[in-house]
Amino acid sequence: MSAPWRRRLRASGLDAPRKAWRIYRDYVQRWYFPLHGLTVSQRVRCAPLLLLVEVLVYQVDAVSEGAKDVDLDVVRNDDYAKLHRYKAAFEALLRRAHAYNDAVARQLQMGEQYVRLENKVTATRTAAREDVLRLAELRPSDVRLLHAMIFALLRQPADEELLDLAWPVEVLADIGNDLRHYHDDVASGRYNTYAAFVALYGADAPARMRAEIQRYEEAFRSRLHRVPMPRRAAVEQLCLRRYARDVASLPEIVRS
Fold this sequence. Notes:
The protein is 73% helix and 0% strand. The chain is built from eleven helices and no strands. The protein has helices spanning 15-36, 40-66, 78-96, 102-124, 129-138, 141-153, 160-180, 182-188, 193-201, 205-224, 229-243. Helix 4 runs antiparallel to helix 6.
């Protein structure tokens, strides 16, 4: 993957539901649901809409991928208008399904910011360190949207501390995904966080990447201390499973 709001492979036809299922399985089934301690009935209540939304997110990807050589904030063409329509359609769908709250609204905004920033970076082929890290932080907006929807679907107030705890883990998982797909992404010309670091720092890229990974891990650890002791070990293991293996080593740099 990743997502639109995260990096994904280009999807079309039946490929989109398959990839959406993979995201749903890895993030919702294996992480968010256990993190919340949801019952089977609660999971069944949430599942259909969460999976549907993850499939629909690919439509935003298609616009962004198709316009990757055009800066949509400069050339305000049909694709620019489509982004506004998709966001409005998402919001309308979530409101009708009673899956909308302030946390969901934030992620819709973050998702739009991600698509626009990714479009700007790929169209201009320039990215400063701040742009690269901002993209890494914004890209998990699609899975954060799913997480926020869980609270709305269960008619519960959003647990901001839990959302805050998950934030650096989601960034690390996304970076880890790019590390796993680095060589394939370089070969196919897709945007990749580690490739962007290599373009910025050359031979220093591994050390720079490792420093950023450590910074996000420290953010996770600082938040983990707020979790009550009886739950802390279980929460830690759930979070580590989401990212630790993928960031344990860095791929060999592709020499241009």
